[in-house]
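#struct-help
A.M.: can someone run this one for me? Single chain, 75 residues.
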Amino acid sequence: MDDNKLGPTGRFPAGKLNEHDEGELNMGIKANVTEGIVEVHFGKPIGWFGLGPAEARQFAALLIANAEKIEKRVI
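D.P.: on it. Structure tokens below:
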């Protein structure tokens, strides 16, 4: 995970959803085996984020895959 690439991109690929929409956000997910947690990094404080169905499934799959890495103790 490259922390320099995390955070806002300045783009609105789905258009501006509402007045609070700050645009696309690069985030990173990693398995922290030492601590036994899945870390989700956003690169900035956020109150909410929205995902389309395909992106939501991909996000869920990444969370599950990283949880399994911790359970298997494999990085």
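A.M.: thanks! The helical segments are 53-72.
D.P.: also worth noting: The chain is about 25% helix and 20% strand.
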